[in-house]
Task: structure prediction
Amino acid sequence: MTIPASGAELAGEFGLRKVGGRPPLVKYAQQVWERRHFAFSLASGRAYSKNQGGYLGQLWALLTPILWALLYYTVFKYLLHVNRGIDNYAGFVVTGLFIFRFISGTMNRSASSMESNNGLITSLQFPRALIPIAYATAEFLNLLPALLVLLAVAVLNGEPLRLQILLLAPAVVLAYVFATGLAFYSARLVVEVADLGNLIPFVNRALMYASGVLFSLDRYGDGAAFQVISHTPLAIYIELARSSLMVEVPVDAATWLWAVGWAVLTVLTGFVYFWRAEAKYGRG
Amino acid sequence: MADQTPSLIMDDVSVTYRSFGGKRQVEGGRRPRWMSKHIGAVDLIRAVRNVSFVAHHGESIGLIGHNGSGKSTLMRAMAGLVPLASGAVYTDGQASLLGVGGALMKDLSGERNIRLGCLALGLSPAEVDERFDSVVEFAGIGEFLQLPMRAYSSGMGARLRFAISTAARPDILLIDEALATGDAKFRKKSKERIDEIKETAGTVMLVSHSMGTIRQTCTRALWLHRGQLRLDGPVDEVVDAYESSLG
Result:
């Protein structure tokens, strides 16, 4: 047997395939789809284990949002007597807060997701995009019981039961798609420059002020600042959720278009951005 | 018997790690010592350096060397799990590391972990259903199935991890010290299981510090020293040389 000049030549001769690296984008997307069950299993495991301690177990998935809602309700309605021009101020705040915490929590946690799953990455072969997807899905699963609480708060506040309530479903699904895109970005960014992880809390707080969680964005006047801020993704998703639950928050078709646009844009560009570094993850 | 068809080719492979939070002390470095200790304390560690070899179908190869010689990193490189600094790895089929430890969650029940681990290995949900009972039986966790893994004894946890990780059948099996888990009875069972997988896998790579295990299971051995391949040859020859180097 003659000795081939290189490994590549020998591999070619016997039909061996190159391992690792980054598959083409379309093939990568197919691999992600094939392994979706793994991502979902990872996500539901994360969501489930969050409420695993204590005697009440999974009841906490419902109790936690109830307690948050009660706290804000009491503080704003009976202690501070603020309404900032909004009749159902407690419902306004709680809805904004739950949607905000869903999106910012996804961004937060997926920032450290590649690092904290290093053991998984360095022991099993799978498209790494499954990790940010699983993180966003886990946060989404945690949001579902909170949505029930939002419905209850709205009804208890005297909001009428009308058909628009059903629009809450597409609103949160779009927010979930957007959050998944955000998760791709934050997961890779922190892998590239670990120091960025330290900036996440500041980004979060800035987003909170800019997205009208605690007050209506009308406060920014109606100039350029308002135009920009009211079209940021968080403000859009929060507004859609509020409008489906509260009569006094009107909504127009343009807001829905913005919501779809932000979701599609973020998830597609985020996926490509994450994929481009596929061969880098797991370096430790 | 080993034929001459290659199943795995390592072509001049190097792996480099970035390490944050510390830097090796080098004489005559560019920056003052106090500074490189606290700011910009990032170091590059060359864990595997220019390793080349070819493994063939039917071969069992032992990988030996001191702690930190790059054995585990090399295995991960074979499975395509760590980015390579240079070189390339070619395989015939899927090379898999035995072990799903990283995928499991200690807060979840054995049942959920079996599903999670099997899906992580790349099985389809239907395949998971099919193999579920045999995994439970092999692990011997019985009534503990519904308890969170946190509540398992370390032996029980190791048995479950082993049972899950051997649920898939890779073409090239990479084993990193997995043989020494559990009690005597389970060790015997797991050895049988590995023999079974070896028959279907074709090629097996084994990392172990037990020279007895290496001599018993392997026909060929590679000796890694500080990330470089020092010796490659028949198992007795390489293990003898390694042992005599230990003094």
Q: What stands out?
A: The first strand of chain B starts at residue 6 and ends at 20. The helical segments of chain B are 33-38, 71-78, 110-120, 125-139, 154-165, 184-201, 211-217, 235-246.
